[in-house]
Amino acid sequence: MPDDLPTDPLTPDAPGPESFSDAAAAVDLLEKLYTQATVFLAQQFQITLSHGHPGHRVRAFYPEIRLTVTSFDKVDSRLAFGHVSAPGTYATTVTRPDLFRNYLIQQIGLLIENHGVEVQIGLSDTPIPVHFAVSGNPDVSIPQEGVMDFSLRDVFDVPDLVTTNDDIVNGTLTRYDDGSAPLAPFTAQRVDYSLARLSHYTATDPTHFQNHVLFTNYQFYVDEFEAYARAALADPASGYTSFVATGNQEITAPDGVIEPATKMPQMPTYHLKQADGQGITLVNIGVGPSNAKTATDHIAVLRPHAWLMVGHCAGLRNSQSLGDFVLAHAYLRDDHVLDDDLPVWVPIPALAEIQIALERAVADVTQLEGYELKRIMRTGTVATIDNRNWELRDQSGPVRRLSQSRAVALDMESATIAANGFRFRVPYGTLLCVSDKPLHGELKLPGMASDFYKTQVSRHLQIGIRAMERIRATPIARLHSRKLRSFEETAFL
After folding, report:
1. pLDDT tens-digit profile of 392-409?
2. N or C: which end of the chain has fewer CB within 10 A?
3. What is the radius of gyration, based on Cα positions, of the chain?
4. Fold of 203-484
């Protein structure tokens, strides 16, 4: 980015840093600083569009949180988050404090409580790209490079890959240039990038996303989810307040009208909301590990409390029947999309809290217990591949690997979602439904699958929802397991 214009950048007047022992007051200042910066950039951008090059750079900065700890005093060893492990200075840039207000108050409050020190709120030295500053304004769009008679980069900051990456969560960045350590898993620019991508891929605003996310790979689940949502809205005791469909269409009554979308997004997303954000979001990611990675890459910045895969799979055992369930307790990663971010030698452990919630949800819905539950559900390794038509290739190699891994099911998304959950420290799980058995001559053909789809999709989705409701009742300190945290972690979830 060129910085050789004849005058210093024009920046908004902003107060100096302040220290806080009250988390809510700290977030109030974050909101003030962020609003001031983005309003300033939006105004200057409009002026530039109308009058041309202003003759100087225009710049505003993300607010930041800083924490300095001077003692090695230990905090509660049971806690997986909310504290730092060693003395030092820790910092993170912040975007959209309005969207993340509850999260920020919770995380800052834990730091103040656990370390007995104040946090400092002020401006960072990371510029806000103009694209992100105006992204919430539907009346403003950034012209493509070359449309204007000068480059916007000569005036405004643009997204910078130096601060838009996964270096923190991948464990490759442990110190910033100023010597401070990361306080949160994502930088502000990385969050802004994903918020913009979420709107594009899902056709719903990030403000609608709930803390519990179900992923599926079939439209049938979407239809059942809407039916469930309408029934829930008819029940005042359900705790659900509204349902949001593609295009940010929101209904609050069971007979609310949702217009068919004229153009479906790549990953249609639907939200059964609760007032406190503790509802359920369903994302139809379609088929394939690339889609699964894309969705989880971006949803991760919202810091959900759990995500589960509830889709279809190929059963690999002759003892399985179409419609049986598979509860994954291990994953064979043959999808390759995360190999550069999370090496395949990294184990992806099953999380006890999630596994118990899923198994009990299956028992609740099917009314089967203990040994009888084994008639319709197997627990075992799920293999995820990147070739939908793997059956058409030489099967000796793939089948041998599947046998050696003790895999009981095969799909194209589950291991990707679990691995990204591990990478992003988001509790994860998988419950699949057998829709075909290619090794035993039962291929996924329309005539064979119709009865299965009609009878099993509704029950499968109900199990996923029931599991999420069980997970929602789990205290957050227990849900966010220490198994997802390393010995050098950010304090924020």
Report:
1. 666 666 788 888 889 999
2. N
3. 24
4. Rossmann fold (3.40.50)
